[in-house]
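Onboarding guide, step 5: your first structure request.
Type a short instruction followed by the sequence, for example:

Predict the 3D structure of this protein.
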Amino acid sequence: MSTYTEFLEKTQSELLAGLKQMQELNVNALTSFSQLAATMPLPTTTDLSKVEIPSATELVEKTFAFTNQIVELRKEYMLKLADFAVNGQKQFTEAATRMAQAAKN
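The system replies with structure tokens like these:
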């Protein structure tokens, strides 16, 4: 039971750390965007109806779309690491089995 509990605690900790990292990346991206936007030239037109300013809702949607892309990249990375671990475990098991059989002979 202790091992299962430790596994769950470690998994939760890693998930929270990943979430925190994604949020920090998101804030950094927004900060970079704000800094970039500050350097962009203002429209020369005085007709503000021609200036396209996204609504707060659109900004939230775009931000979450970006966050989802980060999550998907992280998922792909973690799946590759999991495959690597599974293959390593399989190779270890096969090698241990061969060594045990060789020791019997």
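Each response can be followed by summary notes, for example: The chain has a mean pLDDT of 83.
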